[in-house]
Amino acid sequence: MFFSENVPEEGADPQQSLGRQFPGRAPTMREGGRGNSGSSSYRCSLAVLLVSFLFPRTCGRDASRPNILLIMADDLGYGDLGCFGNDTIRTPNIDQLAKEGVKLTQHIAAASLCTPSRAAFLTGRYPIRSGMAATTERRVIARAGGTGGLPTNETTFAKLLQKQGYATGLIGKWHQGLNCESRNDHCHHPLNHGFDYFYGNPYTLVNECHSNKNPELTSKFQPSYSFYAQIIALLVFTLLLGKFFGLFSVKWKLMTFITLCGILFLNSQYIQYLFLKCWNCVMLRNHIITEQPIKLEHAAPRILKEALTFIQRNKQGPFLLFVSFLHVHTPCYTTEMFRGTSSHGLYGDNIEEMDWMIGKILAAIDKEGLRNSTFTYFASDNGGILEARDGNVQLGGWNGIYKGGKGMGGWEGGIRVPGIVRWPGFVPVNMVIDEPTSLMDIYPTVAYLAGASVPQDRVTDGKNQLALLQGATQHSEHEFMFHYCGTHLHGVRWHQKESGALWKAHYVTPNFTPEGAGACYGTRMCPCSGESVTHHNPPVLYDLSRDPSEANPLSPSSEPLFNTIVSQIERAVEEHRKTLTPVPNQLDLPSNQWDPWLQPCCGIFPFCWCDRESSNDDH
User: Fold this and answer.
1) Where are the domains of the chain?
2) Helix (H, G, I), strand (E, B) or coil at 513
3) What is the pLDDT of residue 154?
4) How far is residue 329's CA from residue 200's CA, in Å, rounded to a whole number?
5) What is the domain class of 14-206+282-616 according to CATH?
6) Residue range 414-432, pLDDT digits in tens
7) pLDDT tens profile 259-297
8) Using CA atoms, how far apart are residues 163 and 284, in angstroms rounded to an integer?
């Protein structure tokens, strides 16, 4: 490398020394994706100053209290959108959104799985701070009926904006828990976290919600179910023999027989297959179950209708609307209108349907005259899943050039997601920002826009990135970002703002199965710890600014500053760990296990069937 001769002098400050090694690195903001020049940055800054002069924050709701529209896809791969390099899946509405705003190319999720990533998004804090990170491999809310969930003492951005007079709504997926002590206490419900209105799935989309899929939550337990069924059958047979030969009292035989039949009933595969579809596949409107199980063929139009109705109902503003799509989580579901229309099977159909829905939502914003007074944000909660396959056909997303995918704590494919921000008149158009940003940044950014203050009694990890979005500064507020897999720290990135260097150290990496396959096909998802991971000391180091695919690990022989870089990162890890305090873990047992007394049910448990929506459908 061209800087290999410049080794820092003994006693010199490592960061300053490193900063001198990269005088020729390109700036990290580009206009229209064509590179950058001093003149374009200068014009951008002048534009921002002019806008600020014409529209000061103290005058007019457009500048100081915009509507907030947050749109989140589920498991969308970084490379699945046209504006992020895909030329075979059609996403014209999302592509247009990017042209009308800022595209974030280093947008990082705080976790590579739904529940912890969304907890961080809602609170602006690493999930380990709120207890939304697991010590075991059960890393998400595992059932709709369980005690774990986003703690009520956490302050979401919805709570902050609600206090500022915003109408707040969540349409779609929640996956942050539901109940604590009873079936109807709703302690983790969105309405208990600052949302005035909720319509959607309190859990997530799983196989049993799909009419022709086997329940994925029971598949791993099928061998044990078979074993238990054989044991119970043997006991029943023994009981019947005892009755035939008169070896047991009548009362004992009757009680034993009833008990064994009950155990056989509750543990049989038949009952699991029959009821899981109803227990986990639920749609709510506020606290009321409207549909159990979900009819996926109606889910997309209903979610769209609810989003459009919320906008129309609250068009006088200000409002916060979080549209949290069930798309494109596998198993994908798609309405008949989009089925078979893409060149990438059901997954491509799913993306194109989601893009159409986003187009309808943005058209409603325009129709109500809210375009210039609405801060719009689009992202995915984590990267695309690689292990979801049908034979040799991948069913999940494409993460572009980035290694790994969903469930992998440190590799870019699981945590780097597409990000777009549009706010006409206040954010430049057709701009590309290559600086590190985080999903957690939305928290302090929208709080600032609404005139709210972030809580001062806790650590907030997200950064207010408005100045970066507007071009008033060239550098992100982030210096170090920490990549967790559950509670296990797998990696750290160090962004040297002035030099443009972007280092990433992996302390733990998953063992791909089969070896070299690029994913954990043998386990469906890569583990965080145990024998299925490799610990690295010293860590595996990459220069992401030159090697974004993480293909060429550095070493002391190939990188003279290797030890200095690693030492700087390790000091940051030590300081970060000092800010962590013990909290009750929401994703470990017993919090994260199914409890029949907490199971949402619109009938007499376990017979949870209802449909309060069909009569209102407008097809």
Assistant:
1) 14-206+282-616, 218-272
2) strand
3) 98
4) 15
5) alpha beta
6) 999 999 999 999 999 999 9
7) 666 565 555 545 555 677 778 899 999 999 999 999 988
8) 24
Backbone phi and psi for residue 375, each to the nearest 5 degrees, phi listed first: -85, 115
Total-model pTM: 0.85
Can you spell out the DSSP letters for 136-177?
SS--S---SS-S--S-TTS--HHHHHHHTT-EEEEEEE--S-
What is the spatial distance between Cα 125 and Cα 319, in angstroms, rounded to a whole number? 23
Catalytic residues: 114, 175
Whether residue 188 contacts residue 179, with contact meaning beta carbons closer than 8 Å, is answered with yes
- Residue 552's SS3 state is coil
Identity of the residue numbered 350: N
In the numeric block, which tokens belong to residue 369?
Answer: 């005259």
CA–chain centroid gap for 314, Å, is 27
Supply the DSSP symbol for 401: T
Contacts of 88 (CB under 8 A, 6+ apart): 343, 344, 348
Residue 347 — left, alpha, or beta (φ > 0 → left; ψ -120 to 50 → alpha)?
alpha
Token look-up 């907890």 returns 119
Cis peptide, bond prior to residue 393, ω within 30 of zero:
no
Which of 55-69, 334-348, 362-376, 577-591 is predicted with the least confidence, judged by mean pLDDT?
55-69
Using an 8 Å Cβ cutoff, are 299 and 283 in contact? yes
| Residues 6 or more apart in contact with residue 47 via CB below 8 angstroms | 428, 471
> Rounded distance, CA 471 to CA 476, Å?
11
